[in-house]
Amino acid sequence: MSKILVIEDESAIRRVLVKILSEENEAYQVEEAEHGAAGLDLVKKNDYDLVLCDIKMPRMDGVEVLQEARKLKPEVPFIMISGHGDLDTAVNTMRLGAFDYISKPPDLNRLLTTVRNALDRKELVVENKILKKKVSKNYEMVGKSKEIDAIKEIIDKVAPTDARVLITGENGTGKELVAHWIHQKSDRSDAPFIEVNCAAIPSELIESELFGHVKGAFTSAVKDRAGKFEAANKGTIFLDEVGDMSLSAQAKVLRALQENKISRVGTDKDIKVDVRVVAATNKDLQKEIAEGNFREDLYHRLAVILVRVPALNDRREDIPLLIEHFASKIAEEHGSSPKKFSAKAVELLKGYNWTGNIRELRNVVERLIILGGDTVSEEDVKLFASK
Fold it and tell me: What UniProt keywords are attached to this protein's entry (predicted)?
């Protein structure tokens, strides 16, 4: 059933619209509001599939209703109702996000066609949003252990919010994968996901990398350049190995989180940014704080939600699933059929000490697929796993 709201201060026109829509389709549930303020209040409290809204109304006009509603529920289509003198305004509302407009008195065929089209579009938008929230197979978290189930549960809760997340764990455990999951299951999934490896960037360049610079800020700054925070606007920035960031850069990141503003190196001009920050580290940040290497105030800003990714040795029951997953992915990359692993081969791999975690397991699986027999055997593992 499609839920439609009619916002119109002229009672005669409002009744006509409600009657036409109710008689057109029994699946239309039509509600009404007699002025803009009342209509916006209903939009806040209810989930509508479509809103028909007059432009000229007392207390709050249709343009204001549209603008406020778009902030609250941008997926709800608006059809604006315009008098003859409101046509220019009606056209302008489409630039503000309205689906379409109809003139008074409404033409029956035009009205019903526009309503059907708007509802069809709403359905497509909702379906697309659901599909976007399904995590891409490229970033699928494989495992059924209680540790992985706990992480998945946290992600499902935190992803729809803008809460900052700090991911901890050893190298190779899949911290980047968790960050991708959070982004892809969030409302920012259509926007950029920008990764920054703080450990791989020299300390003297990290500020320029994150915040950009203006021409002449330093010797090699031959032109203005935007940084990663600007590139991630409306999306997510992933600060990997954040524990390796210089104290100077930490201070600037703290300001960006506090004020939603950054400034490029070489200028004091503020640039507003809307960025969700997800960070990761393999370091003990509490120890780094005690040693003066990491700002405690930045830690508390980043660690709104803490996610600890377990070592592979702590979730050995997931190893058979991971082997099967990697075998399938590697076969796809090589353009061949997936190789099978014998039960004894899998059991032997389950017992190894995986100091390099999932990254090491994947490398070993690929090596065994290349060097092992048609079915990877226990002997293949002993010969080629190099443990």
Answer: ATP-binding, DNA-binding, Nucleotide-binding, Phosphoprotein, Transcription, Transcription regulation, Two-component regulatory system
